[in-house]
Amino acid sequence: MSTTVAVPVETNYLTEKQGILSWLLTTDHKRIGLLYFFSVTAFFFVGGFFAVLMRLHLLTPQGVIVGPETYNKLFTMHGIIMVWFFLIPSIPATLGNFLIPMMIGAKDLAFPKLNLASWYVFMLGGAVTLWALVRGGVDTGWTFYTPFSTTYSTTYVVGAALGIFISGFSSIMTGINFIATIHRMRAPGLTWFRLPIFIWSHYATSMIFVLATPVLAITLLMVCFERLFQVGIFDPALGGDPVLFQHMFWFYSHPAVYVMILPAMAVVSEIIPVFSRRPIFGYTAVAYSSVAIAVVGFLVWGHHLFVAGESVYSAMAFSFMSYLVAIPSAIKVFNWSATMVKGSISWDTPMLYAIGFLGLFTIGGMTGLFLAALGLDVHVTDTYFVVAHFHYIMVGGAVMAYLGGVHYWWPKISGKMYPEGLARLSALIVFLGFNLTFFPQFVLGFLGMPRRYAAYPDEFQFLHVLSTAGASILGVGYVLPLCYLIWAWKYGKEAGPNPWRATGLEWQTASPPPAQNFDTTPIVTRPAYDFEGMKEELHLG
Amino acid sequence: MSASSVAGEFNWLFWTLVVVCGTVATAIACVVIYSALRYHRKNENELPPPLPSNNIRLEAAWTIIPFFLFMGMFAWGAKLYFDIERPPDDALQVYVVAKQWMWKTQQLDGAREINQLHVPVGQPVKLLMTSQDVIHSFYVPAFRIKQDVLPGRYTSIWFQATKPGKYHLFCAEYCGTKHSGMIGWIYVMERQQYQHWLQEGAAEGSLASDGEKLFHQFGCANCHHFDGQGRCPNLQGLFHSTVHLAGGTTVLADEAYIRRKLFDPRATTVEGYDKDVMPDFSHQLTEEDVIQLIAYIRSLGPAPGSTIESSPGSTPSQYGNQPGIAYPGAPPILNRTPGMR
Known about the structure:
The structure holds 2 protein chains of 2 kinds.
Chain A: H1 20-24, H2 29-57, H3 68-103, H4 112-135, H5 148-152, H6 157-184, H7 197-229, H8 242-276, H9 283-296, H10 312-340, H11 349-372, H12 374-380, H13 384-414, H14 420-447, H15 461-491
Chain B: H1 7-38, H2 56-85, E1 92-99, E2 102-107, E3 113-114, E4 116-120, E5 124-131, E6 136-140, E7 145-149, E8 155-160, E9 165-171, E10 183-189, H3 191-201, H4 207-217, E11 242-244, E12 250-252, H5 255-263, H6 287-300
Parallel strand pairs in B: 1-5, 4-10
Antiparallel strand pairs in B: 1-2, 2-3, 5-8, 6-7, 6-9, 9-10, 11-12
Helix pairs in contact in B: 1-2, 4-6
């Protein structure tokens, strides 16, 4: 991709400065990426712990461990932490932060101090939410539906909502930073259509961050105002409209689903070409489909309201738009599959995760078609069918891609290789455990098991037991990488600048990279994924 | 289990989508798995021979074909939705009030029920629902129907059960601590059994007769005379008639309109009447009271001049000109759950 070749460097971004303050006051996008990486990993295991308790509780129809009040708090805190403190920042704020400047040949993001500020704001929001949790938790569900959240719940709604409100600013800061960086700081010769797909997807993600997050902020503030001062906005007893809340909430939260999946698509779009040694098939379509998802994704929020009292005609409009937004996703799946045809396919861990993503995202996306069909949605909405559907997208899709990305760029981030055999094994465990956890939930939903139930009729027990068994396997699959990646950080074998023989600019510099990323600014003369053009440099063929 | 008139078509659409999506997913899986096995990297330095990295016709095909498939799903799904949302005219009317954490169901005749509902097989049943507190959702999986039940307004759904039996009723919208306990049963009965059940419940009196008691208890009869001479409109024949409002607009006098006149009387004024006469009952009536009053007003229909049907024991005209004090003996009915105010 570039004509520059890395020269050995004395220090890298990890060793250049030492001490805790050099981390807490850093403006280096790579170090900030790592700060985010540690934070979201911690949040992931907190949220995962709640999931484990829920799955154990649901082993028997009457519930094993906790009472309904605690169960309601468990699923609420699981949702809040996983959505806002893991999934939304996961790929953009860790891998995006680390890689975007390197992929475009820049020294840093456009606003390095804003980038550091975004992490502090994120941590403040997280701290406020955790404080609400420690004080006694929240029981509204992560969706905060009114008037339950504003009038009836007796838990720490305001604390949790304020934590999310604060962390939203960190999303906006990250979005602004990425947009400015991608527009202004590309290396000479790096035109829009030479950009890696990773950049296109993150650009689309950033647009959603900037446009949708303010709506969530306003909505949550309104919830707080109604709850604290009885300002009648959502509660009909005060003259408000409870469905208005749902419109405002989903106007943010549906695009937020694309904030979770677009960066996952970004990662997969990098992994598949490198591990197939073939340029991504239909680059232009894949690039534009990211933008199309971001734009059309703003017009589908009403599909969460098909049984909420929406008129049949607005339901039809939202159903139609929901089918439209499925088309760019379908295009991506076809293009990724076509990229593999007649390639040179490696079975390294990142590729296993990418293939796993492809399968699970396809199932998640296709069950979305069921939910977009108005007459089907009436039955399966608010049941475990929906739970299974969005976990296939967010866990099967986003988390698989995140793990794939972490493994793919781990040599670049740490300079070390992870143990390949163990990594492949845990990728397999994650895939099997995931399917055993969530596939039975599709069946549960079809049979009519409503979601958010602390107890359930006996006939659903068998499928719940299967799901819990799967969750315990899945848990092992998540703990294993945590252990061996920490091990590899210290004991892994040296990776070298480009262990995968990839074409991206980030692989043209040392691993770990120097603080300034590149010794000289790269000049780009080739399209992305040009293995044929780079075969001399990469010693291929 | 499926036991309603729409369940058959639901199952057809669902399994058609399973087959269509399953076929496409299998095809994708075959391409990916075949490629991963067949083109597995043989040696470290392997570079596959160059191939075109796009193909406009192929890409157009896999954009346009899904589009038409999706439009088919959209149209069929929308058609089924219309069937689920639009009740037939001859439906049996049932009123549902949801509250944390129970379902109260009431038919025009028959017993008041909690967490259960008895209906005849083969008869369309229309539910008019509201909530006393938070949002709930009326969900009967076997009938493939679900509708959120909102505070402050009426929503409706209908079904026609096709098999006698006992079917689960779930609350499907999270509504607080005992959400998972807000479960009931729908009993679908043969016609004769249902008639028998109705008669057993008749001792309690009809919904309209309860409404009539409230009508007098709250002093409604003081102004709403049946001879048209009162300070307020004659309510005979009101139900489902067209009301002319001040300002020249018209409105259909359905349940939502009557509820609104009780809870927010200043919102609309009937042409030719004083706007400040009707008191606001929002702090005195429960949603169940409102439904009883609606049933009473409904029983006063058809249009004035024709025979008046009423509950046994009294005729409206008896009270027509009765003088009275506003709200004689009206108990303070406060229906709000004290919350985190």
